[in-house]
Write a structure and sequence with these properties.
This protein is α/β, with parallel strands linked by helices and about 300 residues long. The chain has two domains: about 1-90 and about 275-295, NAD(P)-binding Rossmann-like Domain (Rossmann fold, 3-Layer(aba) Sandwich); about 95-270, NAD(P)-binding Rossmann-like Domain (Rossmann fold), CATH 3.40.50.720. The chain is built from nine helices and eleven strands. A six-stranded parallel β-sheet has the order 7-6-8-9-10-11, with helices on one face. α3 crosses α5 (about 150-160). The protein starts with a strand and ends in a 15-residue tail after the last helix. The mean pLDDT is about 95.
Length: about 300
């Protein structure tokens, strides 16, 4: 079994990968190959770990049997057609992404973003900030999407006794399946958490935001293109919504001229939500588990449909 690794790994992680398989597995690492040899190994590879350059699909991949992405998102591959199982890292990243977005919402309600600014200014306001603080407990929360990140966030929010509603077109984990149903509860929703894939472009548009509850919070840990940023900025400027917690933006890095940088009611986490000090070794562990499942004839975790975008 020939495995080509696109993911950049350090020597320790490479050894971790080698030790995860039997002797009949040959491993090749992209960073150890010339461009010419990379194409040769890609043509021979039966399994690939990592995000293949889109341009590399101009070459045949007739030997490829299983492809493991090393990311949760895969918008760039929507025009690629492969008749093999493809998996992303949705489950692997779900816990950390959920922790970050829930932490951002809690931080907003507890005024942490304002207090950090005051600390940098060496300005003590003490009790004056207390009347502006809220709690997350008992809030009405809508989660857009019902995949791994959404389910992890739901589990965390349950501990705060939130009233949680998941919405998705077809996913059975969701309780709402249409925009009409969603719009009927948005006026009573305190927090909207977006976990949608890039295929849901501009899902949160001006109409959506106008239906949201006055003073609610919008949080996005899905994809930046799912939000109409101009409509979001307008709603923040006009105090239609109280604030936003954004792990993703339409353009990344966020352009310096974006108003989002200077808005005090915005928390930007710079697409770091899935990060962890052991991120790459965790990816390797997840890949080893999925490959061994595949080799045993079992279904790998986190299978996706490239064309559908989820």
């Amino acid at each position: 079994m020939k495995i080509l690794v696109y993911t950049t790994l350090n020597p320790e992680q490479k050894n971790q990968l080698r030790n995860g398989f039997t002797d009949d597995v040959e491993l090749f690492f992209k960073n150890d190959l010339t461009e010419e040899n990379l194409f040769l190994k890609l043509a021979e590879a039966e399994i690939v770990l990592g995000n293949i350059n889109v341009s590399h699909f101009s070459k045949p991949h007739s030997n490829l049997k299983f492809w493991q992405l090393d990311s949760a998102g895969f918008d760039q591959y929507q025009n690629i057609s492969l008749n093999i199982p493809v998996a992303n890292m949705g489950t692997f990243y779900a816990q950390r992404c959920a922790e970050s977005i829930v932490a951002g919402v809690i931080g907003f309600y507890r005024g942490i973003h304002s207090l950090v600014r005051l600390q940098s200014e060496k300005k003590w306001v003490g009790s004056k900030i207390r009347p502006s603080l809220q709690g997350l407990t008992d809030k009405n929360v809508v989660i857009l999407g019902a995949g791994a990140i959404a389910l992890a966030a739901k589990k965390m929010l349950t501990g705060f006794c939130c009233n949680i509603t998941l919405t998705a077109r077809k996913n059975p984990n969701a309780t709402l399946h249409s925009l009409e149903e969603l719009f009927s509860i948005l006026p009573e929703t305190d927090v909207v958490i977006n976990t949608l894939p890039g295929s849901a472009e501009n899902y949160v548009n001006e109409e959506f935001i106008n239906v949201m509850k006055q003073g609610s919070i919008y949080a996005n840990v899905g994809r930046g293109n799912t939000t109409d940023e101009s409509a979001l900025i307008k709603a923040l400027e006009e105090c239609k919504i109280a604030g936003a917690v954004l792990d993703v933006t339409a353009v990344e890095p966020l352009p310096l001229e974006s108003k989002l940088w200077d808005m005090e009611q915005v928390i930007l986490t710079q697409h770091s939500a899935g990060g962890d000090q052991n991120e790459n070794s965790g990816k390797v562990k997840h890949f080893i588990k999925n490959v061994n499942r595949f080799l045993k004839g079992e279904q790998p975790e986190d299978l996706i449909d490239l064309r559908k975008g989820y």
